[in-house]
Amino acid sequence: MANAADSKTNRVAPKSAARTTHARTARAREEAARHQRRQRILWAVVASGLVVVLIAALVIAKATSGGKSSTPPAAAATPAVPASLLTNLAAIPPSQLAQAERLVGSNVGAPSPISDAPLTSAGKPEVFYLGAEFCPYCAAERWAMVVALEHFGSFSGLTETHSSSIDTDPNTPTFAFHGATYSSPYISFVGVETTTNQPQGNFYAPLDNPTAAQEALLEKYTQGTIPFVDFGGKAVIKSPQYDPKILAGLTVDQVAAQVPNLNTAIGQAVEASAARDISAICQMTGGQPSNVCSAFSGSAS
Amino acid sequence: MSAAPSAAALRSGGRTELRLGLAGSALALVGLALASYLTYAHYADARALVCSDKGTINCLKVTTSSYAVQHGVPLAVLGLVFFAVMLPLQLPAAWSRSDPHLRRARLAVAGVGAAAAVWLVWVELFRLDAVCLYCTGVHIVAVALFALTGIGTALTAPLD
Fold first, then answer.
1. pTM confidence score
2. Domain extent listing, chain A
């Protein structure tokens, strides 16, 4: 009997041990699985949190930077153009610009009509400017360009600068298109500044690289001279519209204060040039916006 | 070889996937609606957006900037494509599938959306000095989808 009982116990014991081992293994596996899942969730939460923290850091950085844009540095640190200055230029009534154009007659240059392939970008007709920061004629041209373009959209990230201090018409005050962004529902604007105003070697430090197509346009219409402006393949500026000498010795703020005043030489020259640029742009937009283009006869839709 | 999940675990997992699917689909639908509106405005008339066009909140300035079109493709259209791709990936039926390729694809698409949102917030704040309300809505949805997809993928991952 005893032997029989022993033999029964001996048969049951290995099964029970195996069951215990199996249960322990299962528990360990379950624990490992739970740990793995917890870790994965932690990684997911950290990754999501990181994105939120990144965005929050951007907002805080913007709030504490006093609203300054992080425009790429040009030659030297240049102050941002105050929003109020651009608002004042944009607020010059189109009728006043048209009056300036009549006032100056042929003393201010106008874009020459061309018949080229339409120049477009981002699905809109493109105004393409090519110049350089050292160039005083480009400095003068930018005033007219900014007044004109501000009537079709708005700039961000414009900074104040001046032409070369060792060239003709030294230190002509102006804006820097390099690093600026332009928004408009009607047109695109592409500004290329090939050099800074800082001498380097025999010339000036390089800045933007024009594309082959842009260089071809420059070569075709001006044989390489700047400033050059192409209004959507419909008109081009091949030579300065007015003399930069009238801007000599002034700061950007001082010029900006005179631009809206038609009793000043600066006001007449910049506004008349802008008016002629606006007429060319209205040809590109089919007369839109009408509250701007209707002031200019001949900017047909 | 992994042990087969219990019936309770299956039931619980099914509920998690259903909830993830419903929340993800709802977010993708909101994103799709916002992106559709921005796409419509891009092609019809950017000025049609019901939004301020002066000061910091300036949808027109953002949606008509040079950043609004990348390599010839409007960002609004890219947003539309993103949410159109995301919607089927977020459906409860997609969440209930354990296909590793599908899970990775959903996570990758969500990651692209979150990265794009961070870049676009930087552009608005530091390049354009303007914020577009509808774009901000899209960014919030994209980041929420990334969080939901990341956490959901971790929650429903098959265990080794």
1. 0.74
2. 18-66, 83-293
